[in-house]
């Protein structure tokens, strides 16, 4: 709309025609250049890097789920469930006679896992996941008994307990069975209470260590320059392609400084050209930086079909011969005509995909084609097979 208004005003101005034509051409060039200018792609620093020491910690515990409707562990096949029940009852003052054999169907042994977030304080609640470790058919409707959750150091950091929420449902009758989703894993929202806090070293050190999520020397240099422009020279320097050391201003609030640091907009360097191939599923993922050198790709399918037909040889009447069974095999070989497609140098991702689709390459064929192109030196990308 602005371009149209400017051109309209120029055409209606009382100036000589030659000057008017020159002005119109000049405005078109200027406005066209402005249109081609695109805003730089930028990400927040908090999306590119993490602060050393600000991390979550994994927790794990062993417990019992009770109250199941006959879908618990078969205690004859899971002796650890019986041992856990006996130990729990002894702690509660209930002693069972020696040699007692428990046949329970409403109890299941489970593993409880969770993640303790950074800066979690005693009294806060966290979500937990409860997974069956025996042969329980379903945890639906069960209640997790008090379970201590330990860290890698063996210390107890949270206590878990509550009613499970299982997303699946199943039914069985007269040999027929139907099931939707998974029945042996449940979740308890806010099911654990933090009992111990993990000390943080954020405010105890003189500097802040940033760790890039992807190691890249170019991006590390860009991040250092952006931080120094924001907070002054010699505030940050790159230790290597991943670690950046930042010196906060003297007498500054560490929390406020980190908040301002994370909000800096960074335009990261171009990513490395990479092709990811999943050999099991045939999935191929390529990023935008993948390019090609000039090459020609030929593709054709060879099909071999072998069919065997039994042949019975029956002897004549009143003869001493025996019936003989033989097999007659027929082999057919069919080959689709191959197609050759030329890929020009400098082709981008869309050109690669269009060319390979044009020759009818399936995902499995694409795996072989890309590996051959990499071996020939035509594929300008790192090829990673997972």
How would you explain this protein's 3D organization?
InterPro entries: Flag_FlgI. Keywords: Cell projection, Cilium, Flagellum, Signal. It is found in: Bacterial flagellum basal body. This is Flagellar P-ring protein. This protein has four domains: about 1-30, no CATH class; about 55-170 and about 180-195, no CATH class; about 210-265; about 275-310 and about 335-385, no CATH class. It is built from eight helices and 23 strands. The chain has helices at about 1-10, 15-35, 45-50, 80-90, 215-230, 255-260, 350-360, 365-375, and strands spanning about 45, 50, 55-65, 110-115, 125-130, 145-150, 155-165, 170-175, 175-180, 185-195, 210, 235-240, 245, 265, 275-280, 285, 290, 295-300, 300-315, 325-335, 340-345, 380, 380-385. The strands form eight sheets. The chain has a six-stranded antiparallel β-barrel with strand order 3-4-5-10-7-6. Strands 2-11-13-12 form a four-stranded antiparallel beta sheet. Helix 1 (about 1-10) packs antiparallel against helix 2 (about 15-35).
Query: Cα-atom Rg, whole angstroms?
Result: 35 Å
What's the β-strand tally?
A: 23
Largest sheet: 6 strands, antiparallel, barrel
| Straight-line N-to-C gap | 51 Å
Number of domains: 4
Spans of at least 5 consecutive residues with low confidence: 1-7, 34-40
Overall geometric form: flat
Separate helix tally: 8
The helix-and-strand class reads alpha+beta
Oligomer: single chain
Strand order of the largest sheet: 3-4-5-10-7-6
Helix content: 10-25%
| Range of strand content | 25-35%
Mean pLDDT: 78
Protein name: Flagellar P-ring protein
Function: Assembles around the rod to form the L-ring and probably protects the motor/basal body from shearing forces during rotation.
Pfam families: FlgI
Main location: other
């Amino acid at each position: 709309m602005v371009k149209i208004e400017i051109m309209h005003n120029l055409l209606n101005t009382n100036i000589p025609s030659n000057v008017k034509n020159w002005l119109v051409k000049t405005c078109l060039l200027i406005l066209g250049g402005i249109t081609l200018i695109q805003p730089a792609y930028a990400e927040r620093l908090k999306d590119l890097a993490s602060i050393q020491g600000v991390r979550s910690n994994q927790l794990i515990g062993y417990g019992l789920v009770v109250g199941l409707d006959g879908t618990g562990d078969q205690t004859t096949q899971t002796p650890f469930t019986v041992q856990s029940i006996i130990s729990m009852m002894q702690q509660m003052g209930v002693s069972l006679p020696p040699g007692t054999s428990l046949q329970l169907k409403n109890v299941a042994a489970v593993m409880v896992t969770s993640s303790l977030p950074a800066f979690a304080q005693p009294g806060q609640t966290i979500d937990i996941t409860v997974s069956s470790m025996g042969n329980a058919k379903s945890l639906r409707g069960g209640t997790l008994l008090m379970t201590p959750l330990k860290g890698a150091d063996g210390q107890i950091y949270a206590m878990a307990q509550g009613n499970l929420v299982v997303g699946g449902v199943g039914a069985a009758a007269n040999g027929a069975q139907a099931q939707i989703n998974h029945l042996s894993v449940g979740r308890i929202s806010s099911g654990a209470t933090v009992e111990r806090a993990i000390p943080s070293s954020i405010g105890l050190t003189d500097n802040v260590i940033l760790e890039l999520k992807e190691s890249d020397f170019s991006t590390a240099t860009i991040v250092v320059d952006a931080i120094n422009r924001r907070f002054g020279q010699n505030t940050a320097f790159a230790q290597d392609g991943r670690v950046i050391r930042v010196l906060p201003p003297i007498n500054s609030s560490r929390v406020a400084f980190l908040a301002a640091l994370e909000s800096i907009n960074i335009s990261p360097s171009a990513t490395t050209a990479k092709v990811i191939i999943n050999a099991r599923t045939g999935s191929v993922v390529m990023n935008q930086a993948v390019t090609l050198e000039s090459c020609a790709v030929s593709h054709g399918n060879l099909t071999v079909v072998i069919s065997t037909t039994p042949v019975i040889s029956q002897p004549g009447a009143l003869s001493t011969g025996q019936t003989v069974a033989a097999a007659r095999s027929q082999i057919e070989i069919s080959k689709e005509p191959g197609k050759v497609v030329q890929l020009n140098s400098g082709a981008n991702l869309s050109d690669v995909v269009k060319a390979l689709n044009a020759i009818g390459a399936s995902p499995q064929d694409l795996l072989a084609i890309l590996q051959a192109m990499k071996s020939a030196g035509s594929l300008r990308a790192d090829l990673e097979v997972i």
